[in-house]
Every structure is written in structure tokens, then in C-alpha cells.
Amino acid sequence: MKPSPATLGMGVSMTVGYGTLYYSFSILAPEIAREFGWSQSFVFAVFSIGLLGGAVSAPIIGRLIDRFGARPVLTFGSILAAAALAGLSMVQNGWQFAAVTLAAEFVSIAVQYDAGFAALAQRHGQEARSQITLVTLVAGFASTVFWPLIQWLLTMMTWREVYLVLAGLNLALALPVHALWPSYRREVAVPQKSSAEAGAPAVASRRPHLALMAISLSAGGFVLSAMGASLLVLLGDAGFTPAIATLTGSLIGPSQVAARVIEYARRGVLSPPVTGLIATGAIFLALTLLFAAAIFPAVAIVLVFAVFFGIGQGLTSIIRGVLPLHFFGTAGYGRTMGTLSGIRMVLSAAAPVTIIFVNERLGVEAAIGCLLLMGAIGLLAMVGLSRLPPLRLDAERRGQLS
Asked: Is 1 helix (H, G, I), strand (E, B) or coil?
């Protein structure tokens, strides 16, 4: 399937969504703390609490997408995201900062992957896998684009003015893509005998799939969130120099992009569950290497760790979107994504502070050991999930027999 302009536009809008609402914080937070005389720990604690707002909004936004389609949710999401960013430029005290940050993260779900994947699933159905991969490939450059962009803007303006520019980017780049997205045509429901005869078994049959999917994706989210915030700290405490730690971190991005390029080029060759096994297996192997490097520091080990971790991280973003589509189909896709994202984001928000706390109290080996345990849980849950049949096939059979 050739990439469509709409899909490429969605990739650009997701880049804006992550760049303005997520990656911008790590650069602007020190500037905010400096102006108000706050500690950086306070500012980042507010951001972590704000991420929990996204966990609350994810199921709500998922249901809205199923009911009204992705276009109105994405469109209003862009407007509200711009308003929240503009609001951040005007905060005057800690309470205002906390409230607006919470609001910004609450609406961020409507302009990031979960909403974007739902839009692609509604438009392309079971053929959305390649489109989802392409969007992650484009949006994977969000930090590459926005970190230097924001640093450059700070040389010419204050952090408040930067937030106004970021708000403008949502209106100028993301809003047109979302407003012009094709409207959603609701699928005709398959007639069933009764909710007691058909609905209850269908709900019950989803539970093992949803449970294993939630465990695997949430464990992976915990690892990715913790590593994104604390990798350099862990490597430093393991005895590696800042130069080696920086080199290690720099290898993750190219490996992530390479994995997504290969997935896009070879789409359809491997099933989504097999791709999920590769993603979780690569993360588990990477964490095993990192644990070994903490005991026997060797540059070669951490460099190989970075390659495998980048592969796992790159594929994890894709399986978040394609696994629900593979197992459940397009019906209720937004709600399923919202439920899974809500659980994942709770653990992701708690991950950085948890790992740093363990590292400070028990040492780097214990901290990496916790991450390795979570990686093992994610892999085992994915193994169990891969052994279950897709429920969408059962639904298709029921439709053929009715």
C-alpha cells in the first residue's frame, strides 16, 4: 500500500503533538523553574502528575472516537492543545502551573498516537498496519526536530513566548490535517439474537486477550518511560563516563528508526503477534545486557544494549496500534486503545521516580534488575497473547452465518 498524503500529514501532526506537548517539557522545565525559583524536582513532579491526567482521559477519548469518529476528536484536540499551551505561557504561580499542565496532558491523548491510530483504523480497517508504521516512522523524529528547534527559539525569546509559538504550530500544522481528515462511516452492526446470547460471551472472550495485552504493553511502557528519564543516570552509576553514556543513548534513535523502516518495508511478512514477540524479546535482551554491564562494565556490552533497545522501542510503538486491530478488528477500536493506554500511562508516569528511588536506596544493579523483571513480564505476557486466536475472525464468521 502506497503512503497517502493524508497518512503523511497524520505523521506530521503526530510529530507536532509529541514535540509540543511532551518533548518540549524537558527543555522548558529548567527555564520555568529558574524564573519562579522552584526546584526542578517540583516541576517534573507536576509533569508526572499531569501524565496521570492522560491516563484518565484516554478511555474517554477512545469512546468519543468510536461514537463520533476521529476527525472531530482530533480537530477539537488540536484547538484545546493550542489553548493549553497558550495557557502555560500565562501562568503566574504554582497552582496555575499545575492546573494548566494537567489540562495539557489531559488533552494530549487526542492529538497523539492513540487518536491517530484510531483514525487510521477507521479509514483503512485491517489494512491500517502499514499506515500506522509509516506514521510512527515520521513521528519518531519528534524529539530530533523539536529539541533543537526549542533550544534555538530560547536564544531569541522567553519560555513564555516559546509556548505561544508551540501553540501556533498546533493551529498551523496539526489542525488543518485533522480538520480535513476523511469523515468516519460507522460500520453496520451484525444482527445478533440477543445481548444475553451473543453480547455476554463476546465480552467474556475478550478478557484474556485484553489482560495479556494490557500487561505486556504496560510493562513495556514502564521500561521505556524509566529508561527515557534515567538511562544516563544509570549508566553513570554503573561506572561509564558521560561520553560513553551519551554515545549509548545516541545509538537508540537510529536503531529505532531502522526497525520501523524494516517493518514498513516487510509489512505483512510477520503477523502482529510475532512482531510483538520481537519487540518484547529485544527489550528483554537489551535489559539483560544492561544488567550484565552494571556488573561487568564494558563499552561493547552497552553499545549492543542500545541497538537492541532501540529495536524494541521502535517496534513497541507500532504494536500498540496493530495488536488491538489484529485481535479485535475495527469495532470498538478507540475504546480498546483508550483502555489499554490508560493502564499503560499510569505505570509510565510512576516509572521514572520509582527507578530513581530504587537506584538511590538499593543501587544501580537493583534498579536495572527491576527493569529486567518488568521486561520479563512483558515478554511472558506477549508469549501468552501470541497463543490466543484473533477474535475478529470469530466475529467475521458470525456475520457470514447470520
From this structure: coil
Checking if the pLDDT of 174 tops 60, the result is: yes
Kind and range of the H or E element at 363? none
Domains and CATH numbers, the chain: 5-179 (1.20.1250.20), 197-401 (1.20.1250.20)
Measured distance CA(122)–CA(190) in Å, rounded: 17
Distance between CA atoms of residues 300 and 288, nearest Å:
14
> Among 136, 146, 148, which residue's Cα sits nearest to residue 166?
146
What is d(CA 374, CA 102) in angstroms, rounded to the nearest whole number? 27
Within 10 Å of residue 148's Cβ, how many Cβ atoms? 11
Q: How far apart are alpha carbons 187 and 220 in whole angstroms?
A: 32
Task: Specify the 3-state DSSP secondary structure of 267.
Answer: strand
**What is the phi/psi pair of residue 93, to 5°?**
-155, 175
User: Does the reported pTM lie above 0.70?
Assistant: yes
* Measured CA distances, 107 to 100, 102, 287, 291 (Å): 11, 9, 33, 37
pLDDT 10s digits, 38-76: 887 788 788 878 878 888 888 888 889 888 888 999 999
